[in-house]
Amino acid sequence: MIKPLRKRHLQIWITLAVLLPIGIVSAWLVVPQPVKNHLLQPASSQALPTVLKGLAQRNPFIDIRCNADTSVLQLEWVSRTELTFPSALIYQVSDSSKGIIDGEIVGRVDMRGAYHFPLKKNPTTKDFHFIIYDIIHHKIIQRINF
Amino acid sequence: MSTSYSAVGWNRQKVKYDWLIFSFCVLYLTVFIGLTVIFIPDYTFETVLIRSTSTLAVLLLHIILSIGPLSRINKKFLPLLYNRRHLGVTMFTIGLVHGAFGILQFHSQGNVNPFVSLFTSNTHFGSLADFPFQVLGSFALVIFFLMAITSHDFWLHNLSPRIWKTLHMCVYLAYFLIIMHVMLGVIQYETNPVFVIILMIGAFTLITLHVYAGIKEAKIDNQKFNLQKEGFVMVCSVNDIEEDRAKMFCIDKERIAIFKTNGKLFAVNNVCKHQNGPLGEGKVIDGCITCPWHGYQYLPNNGQSPPPFKEKVSTYDVKIEMENVWLNPMAYAEGTERPGAVIEMRN
To answer: What kind and span of H or E run contains B227?
Structure first.
């Protein structure tokens, strides 16, 4: 090698000694973190011990459960077969004539399985009214009244 | 050494070298594919091939880039340097298989031309995390392709050493592109940190070797010679030079090699006409100065290659006074006969 070429080699490697660590560290820093197991809704809790109210229909099986002194309420939803809708929100409304605008979201069901959603106790009435709403097609699937 | 095309001049060493490279590649691919089939059986054949060839190509690239500085640090590595180009062409071929299967797997299933898809399917050039890393690998492969097809001496002579060397120094750019191709590609979704650690060790080793060898050479280049007389400078003692070997001195930006052979000292330009190899690191074989890189030979008394070859290097005047070697850095025309300096034997 001739002197200018030797000098150029050294200059190139000194440049690489700066650029390579910068490149490697920069790329390492933007490596996406592994996705954490965040559910879109609270993890399913255990069913409360007492059935307060139930429906005659078997699939999906829906009832209201509570603890011993009925201070804590729960909506139980058990689908034994595949759902016939892609995804649905469950709204709780104060009476059977209300729409989802007046309702409060209790939870979401998307697949076969057992769901347990906490319910707020309504001090004015012992009745429970729910709307199962298809959020993809924007239509009411079913009204459930206990 | 003519400019006409000639096939590879196979000799025993070249054949042995190539068989070694071939065996290593086959062994590596077999072990890699075998282990993947055992431990990750879900991988498709294409994926295994893409991964095995990519890791092998990166490994070979690191070996290739370390041979140069290793040879400058320790002459025992010189045999690796002789046929480094064979290793380079092998690395390109393996990289090409990787690229071809990558295009086949990721760009050939749509209705867009695979090569168009390669450059247009991802255009997030402004994002580091989503950067189109395949483009980096493609550019590196183009550089390796140009290097591979011009690797024969035919192109060295026709393109001129200056252009050829400039083209082949693009390997450093290709190396940077490859590192970023890996870092912005597989590393972005490969959770095992072993890959990054191996890559960092490789890059660190190469940088250290090259910078160390470069600084060592710069020290020789910047050596000062204070004693001057009638155009001659005192460079060393006669005993500092081994028989049939040389010592190199950089005077006025020019490296000159002084060889000791058959009771005489001869000075020639240090730069081989073939690929600018360092003649001073070679030795005298069969009465000829032999370049350590590719074995080109020159007669010590006139700097000419023995017939029928036509390469010539410059010669210089050298003399001995009181066992001190004096060198005149004024070069004679290439191939000029010089008498050399007779070494007086002391009883």
So the answer is: none
